[in-house]
Design a protein that fits this description.
Length: 108
């Protein structure tokens, strides 16, 4: 199991445990973490699972591919350099303790 901390826009932290191989988006959905909608079901076809990676973790995850970068640029509200789509982040032992921040809103 991988420990994940989700911090919402108001600073409220929610901690969950999820199995390796599961996406960060599914970990949020399975644990009813608010702020992650994941409307496309993990197919990188929307930005309703947009998160901000904690600065300490950004360099520890694989780089976003072209599709994810395009989706963040065209669909995410307030994208930042540390923005990622949670559906594209797979949990592993190397990500034990990862911290992600959910934006104030996912869409207009």
């Amino acid at each position: 199991m991988t420990h994940v901390t989700f911090i919402d826009a108001q600073g409220v932290a929610r901690e969950v445990d999820a199995p390796a191989g599961m996406s960060v988006a599914d970990a949020a959905l399975n644990n009813r973490v608010p702020g992650i909608e994941a409307d496309c079901g993990g197919f990188c076809a929307c930005a309703t699972c947009h998160v901000y990676l904690d600065e300490d973790w950004f360099a520890k995850v694989p780089a976003a591919d072209e599709l994810e970068v395009a989706m963040l640029a065209s669909e995410a509200i307030d994208p930042r350099p540390n923005s990622r789509l949670a559906c594209q982040l797979r949990l592993s032992d190397a990500l034990e303790g990862i911290v992600v921040h959910t934006p104030e809103r996912q869409y207009m």
